[in-house]
Amino acid sequence: MKIFVCIKQVPDTETKIKITPDQNGIDTTGIKWVLNPYDEFAVEEAVKLRDANPGSQVWVLSAGPKARVVESLRTALAMGADEAIVINAENLDNYSTAKALAEVIKAEGGAKVIFSGKLAIDDNASSVSQMMAEFLGVPHSTVVSKFAYNGENVVVERDVEGGAKEVVQMMTPAVVAANKGLNMPRYASLPGIMKAKKKVIKEIEFASLNIPASDIKVKYTGFTLPAEKPPVKMLSGDSSAQVFELVKLLRDEAKVL
User: Fold this and answer.
1) 2-215 has CATH 3.40.50.620 classification
2) 142 with 33: CB under 8 angstroms?
3) Which DSSP string corresponds to 34-48?
């Protein structure tokens, strides 16, 4: 059984983001890039599925600048993935990313199960897995917090609003987008890290996929940083005085009362 995991490399949450002078993107200078946290759950579940089904293989796949993205691919390899593929590309939107991932999966002979994270923490779009499933013509489910495979189909439990759970059964092949709580991702072991460094990562040029430029439908412009937050006001006096001042500020300044 072939299992694919689609991952994305994102800026670390502690990174201080800067906007380019033309406001058409972020300045990548000095950014620390990491494997998208939700994709870690996807890698872990894929490795668990592989281990429970002898003879299976986990392929990890990502699109982006190959000089940078291979670092996250090697992280996934160190976690236990068997093989890795990078689609060398720049400035793709979610639609063209999903199409490129689907084309490569089809070219590699397809997969029984395709995992991904429910979203990437940089743009929070939460759309690539659904579009990829559409391009592959297979069922999908997202925000998945429980997964089971019985050979012919998968049964997942997904989180819905209000704290409720929804159970979905899908015939394979299928796309499963992982949510937090699906598992506890393993740390990469030292032998795994050393082995991952020696792995040859297959490289595919985005241009070779024959996806027309017109399929890149979103042009990112007008980036701005959030406005600076106003300074914190410290209230003094006893508890009664503080409550009186707080209510006054909420009514007269914040206008919430």
Assistant:
1) yes
2) no
3) EE-HHHHHHHHHHHH
Q: What are the sequence ranges of the domains in the chain? A: 2-215, 227-257
Cα separation, 66 vs 201, whole angstroms: 10
**What distance in Å separates the CA atoms of residue 33 and residue 12, rounded to the nearest whole number?**
6
CA–CA distance, 240 with 153 (Å, rounded to integer): 63
Residue by residue, pLDDT tens for the chain (257 residues) are 999 999 999 999 888 888 888 888 888 888 999 999 999 999 999 999 999 999 999 999 999 999 999 999 999 999 999 999 999 998 888 999 999 999 999 999 999 999 999 999 988 898 999 999 999 999 999 999 999 999 889 999 998 888 899 999 999 999 999 999 999 999 888 888 999 999 999 999 999 999 988 888 777 777 888 888 888 888 888 999 999 999 998 998 888 87
Task: Name the nearest CA neighbour of 28 among 66, 87, 68, 61.
Answer: 68
Q: Which of 118, 134, 123 is nearest to 92 (CA)?
A: 123
Structure-block tokens of residue 179: 């949510």
Q: ∠ at Cα 95 (200, 227), nearest 5°?
A: 100
- Report how far apart, in Å, the C-alpha atoms of 82 and of each of 91, 145, 230 are: 28, 24, 50
